[in-house]
Write a structure and sequence with these properties.
9 strands; alpha/beta; WH_DNA-bd_sf; 2 domains; CBS_dom_sf; CBS domain; binds adenosine-5'-diphosphate; Helix-turn-helix transcriptional regulator; about 210 residues
């Protein structure tokens, strides 16, 4: 037997009573972020309990019974991406360390003056740089970063499955989500990030609806 989570039941009750209603309005009623509700809304829509219409919102559909089996292969980066933390290539290693702590992330992305992705710096890169004797304020990030064209990226239209596979294959913890500007010259704009935690959270959200 397949059972909906408490939150999914709450969403259905809200839409039943107040639909058509936007995802943002549902999130506000539950005092949650829109992004937190995305997997639930995706599941309920796929299952046929809700109908999603652009510019109208969600409406309740009678008669839907079961939740179909959903995996991360059916979930898209666009829906799950987080905010990227970005620094300029003229920033120092010291600045990068401050940003890593302030924004509570494991890696930051380096952009040039045109805001195009030129590098990635992770915790290990920063630790390596801090083993030397040079003042970290005097080392620019572009000396220690992993640079283009060696950066492994992911696109909005890719699936979480592709993202997970890419991180495992390349032994890295995160991927910048990019929009391609020019493939030949490796010019990309950073629009988000996907981490191993993103994948773990999506997995937990998706598996909740199979709990009996
Ligand atoms: P940590 O250093 O916290 O263990 P990672 O395992 O992600 O983080 O990073 C390991 C190495 O891989 C670092 O040198 C980093 O610059 C590089 N790296 C991290 N993310 C990427 C990426 N998306 N593409 C290419 N290299 C990356």
């Amino acid at each position: 037997m397949i059972k909906l989570t408490k939150r999914q039941e709450e969403i259905l009750q809200i839409v039943k009573k107040e639909g058509p209603i936007s995802g943002k309005e549902i999130a506000d009623k539950l005092s949650l972020k829109r992004a937190t509700l995305r997997p639930d809304l995706a599941i309920l829509t796929m299952a046929g309990n809700l109908e999603a219409r652009t510019k109208v919102g969600y409406t309740y559909k009678e008669g839907a019974s079961a939740v179909p089996f959903m995996t991360i292969s059916e979930q898209f980066v666009r829906e799950y991406k987080g905010h990227p933390v970005v620094v300029r290539n003229s920033s120092s290693v010291y600045d990068a360390i401050v940003q890593i702590f302030l924004k509570d992330v494991g890696a930051i992305y380096v952009v040039n003056d045109d805001n195009h992705l030129v590098g990635v710096i992770s915790r290990k890169d920063l630790l390596r740089a801090s083993m030397g004797t040079q003042d970290l304020r005097d080392i620019p990030v572009n000396v220690i970063m992993t640079r283009m064209p060696n950066i492994i990226t992911i696109k909005l239209e890719d699936t979480l499955h592709t993202a997970a596979k890419r991180m495992i294959e390349h032994h890295i913890d995160s991927l910048p989500v990019v929009q391609e500007i020019n493939k030949v010259s490796h010019t990309y704009k950073v629009v988000g990030r996907i981490t191993k935690t993103t994948i773990a959270k999506a997995y937990m959200e998706l598996s909740k609806c199979y709990t009996v």
